[in-house]
């Protein structure tokens, strides 16, 4: 049995259960990250992150592991689905923490008060700077505790989300061959499942987002794979998401009663700014990113 790092106490229980299940399958089959890389097409470093709980294994990697270990994939994929939802919820909380950090940054940039008579600036009120410093320290203390939890999980995927929702567009061109750790690249990804192709996990960012009712709709983008797709979170049965790039579009719908997430197949695009995701809710509400 391979010696591994202890799983973080901050891991969601469903994610922890899933990672422990993966570890058990790997150990019983006598596999390790090196042999897994040879048999599954996912890199050694990726498997080390998956088995340490620092990154959620994509569904495609889970299926590939089952084949390599000679075990049915059903049990693994059944455990993966709630783990993926839990991981996505953690991403949303992480995004909220980053919003708080930005707010604190803006507040710290505001002047304490009017300039001093001698023109040197600063606050003429005794203790004003000290009170503001204590306020910032208090807020930052709360934020650091929250951020620390996510750092311990190793979720290094920067995906800022806000209702106005977009990050700077990565400058990338569609790769002509599948990149390391992924099973497709560029045009070959169009119409394919991001999880199965290994294009999600640590390879993805939220490029645009918007809120429709209580549902979050996102343009998800993998610069490594050169492809975008649409996703809805906090959704209900009957809610659907559509992603559009030019004249190409794909849709997905929430069908299961216990599902809250749906994502579309991918569309190859060098710049996520050219992709739009729209949500159509069972309640009749609609809305798009951008």
Fold and architecture overview:
The structure is a single chain. This protein has 290 residues and is an alpha+beta fold. Helix content is 37%, strand content 17%. The chain contains six helices and nine strands. The strands form two sheets. Strands 1, 2, 3, 6 and 7 form a five-stranded antiparallel sheet that branches. A four-stranded antiparallel sheet has the order 5-4-8-9, with no helix packed on it. Strand 1 and strand 2 form a beta hairpin. About 14% of the residues have low confidence.
Q: Roughly how many Å apart are the termini?
A: 50 Å
Task: Provide mean pLDDT, rounded.
Answer: 76
Computed over alpha carbons, the radius of gyration is: 22 Å
Strand tally: 9
Helix tally?
A: 6
Query: Order of helices and strands, N to C?
Result: HHHHHHEEEEEEEEE
Q: Per DSSP, what share of the residues sits in E-state strands of 2 or more residues?
A: 15-25%
Shape: globular
Model regions low in confidence, pLDDT < 50 over at least 5 residues:
110-123, 150-176
Structure class: alpha+beta
* Main beta-sheet strand count, sense and barrel state: 5 strands, antiparallel
The level of helicity is: 25-40%
Question: Gist?
Answer:
This protein is α+β, with helices and mostly antiparallel strands and 290 residues long. The chain is built from six helices and nine strands, in the order H-H-H-H-H-H-E-E-E-E-E-E-E-E-E.
Features:
37% helix; single chain; 290 residues; 4-stranded antiparallel sheet; alpha+beta; 5-stranded antiparallel sheet
């Amino acid at each position: 049995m391979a010696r591994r790092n202890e799983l973080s106490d901050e891991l969601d229980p469903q994610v922890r259960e899933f990672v422990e299940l993966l570890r058990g399958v790997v150990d019983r089959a006598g596999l390790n990250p090196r042999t897994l890389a040879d048999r599954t097409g996912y890199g050694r470093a990726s498997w080390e992150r998956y088995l340490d709980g620092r990154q959620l294994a994509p569904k495609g990697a889970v299926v590939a592991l089952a084949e390599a270990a000679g075990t049915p994939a059903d049990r693994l994929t059944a455990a993966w689905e709630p783990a993926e939802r839990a991981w996505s919820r953690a991403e949303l909380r992480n995004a909220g923490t980053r919003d708080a950090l930005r707010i604190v940054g803006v507040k710290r940039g505001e002047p304490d008060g009017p300039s001093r008579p001698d023109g040197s600036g600063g606050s003429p009120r005794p203790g004003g700077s000290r009170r503001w410093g204590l306020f910032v320290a208090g807020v930052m203390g709360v934020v650091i505790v929250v951020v620390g939890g996510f750092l311990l999980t190793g979720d290094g995927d920067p995906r800022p989300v806000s209702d106005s929702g977009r990050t700077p567009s990565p400058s990338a061109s569609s790769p002509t061959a599948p990149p390391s750790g992924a099973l497709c690249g560029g045009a070959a990804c169009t119409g394919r499942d991001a999880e199965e192709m290994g294009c999600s996990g640590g390879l993805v960012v939220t490029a645009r987002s918007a809120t429709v009712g209580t549902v979050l709709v996102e343009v998800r983008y993998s610069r490594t794979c050169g492809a975008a797709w649409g996703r809805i979170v906090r959704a209900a049965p009957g809610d659907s998401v559509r992603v559009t790039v030019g004249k190409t579009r794909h849709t997905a719908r929430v069908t299961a009663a216990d599902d809250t997430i749906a994502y579309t197949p991918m569309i190859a695009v060098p710049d996520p700014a050219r992709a739009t995701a729209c949500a159509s809710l069972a309640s009749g509400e609609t809305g798009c990113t951008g």
